[in-house]
Write a structure and sequence with these properties.
145 residues, alpha/beta, 6-stranded mixed sheet
Length: 145
């Protein structure tokens, strides 16, 4: 199960809406071994595509150095789907290289960049196997959805 603060969910959704119609992507880091998402780190989709996301290799290197400096690891790796449901594509699965991370997908297919309904789901992806997990949102967000 992924337990995540409402503020972090709101930040992912806001990023997905802001980047629509392109896919948004990013990481939420947390203490090593803690499985607690704490620090929201939006990334740039180097592919700038509505159907694909890619972290820039230099940005990714900087991210991992920064997480090392803070004794953190990627707890959540998120991206958005702009025209399909929040379910990992074959490409998403092939790029999933963090076996302990929660892979969160936000679908903006219904409302695009506008306020309104969105779909958010979380998965564990290990050796090509997708397992959906429950998402428990804790606290209240000061942002409006």
């Amino acid at each position: 199960m992924l337990e995540i603060a409402a503020e972090l969910v709101a930040a992912m959704v806001a990023h997905a809406r802001a980047d629509h119609p392109d896919e948004a992507c990013g990481v939420i880091a947390g203490p090593i071994g803690g499985d607690r998402p704490e620090r929201f780190i939006p990334m740039v989709n180097a592919a700038r595509s509505p159907t694909f996301y890619e972290f820039d290799s230099l940005d990714l290197l900087r991210l991992y150095r920064d997480m090392d400096d803070h004794d953190e690891e990627p707890v959540v790796i998120y991206h958005s789907h702009t025209a399909t449901e929040a379910y990992p594509s074959r490409t998403d699965v092939s790029y999933a290289s963090e076996p302990h991370a929660h892979y969160v997908l936000v679908s903006t297919r219904e409302t695009g960049s506008d306020e309104g309904p969105y779909e958010l789901r979380s998965y564990r992806i290990v050796e090509g196997q997708i397992t959906e997990e429950e998402v428990r949102v804790v606290g209240q967000s000061s942002r409006t959805e």
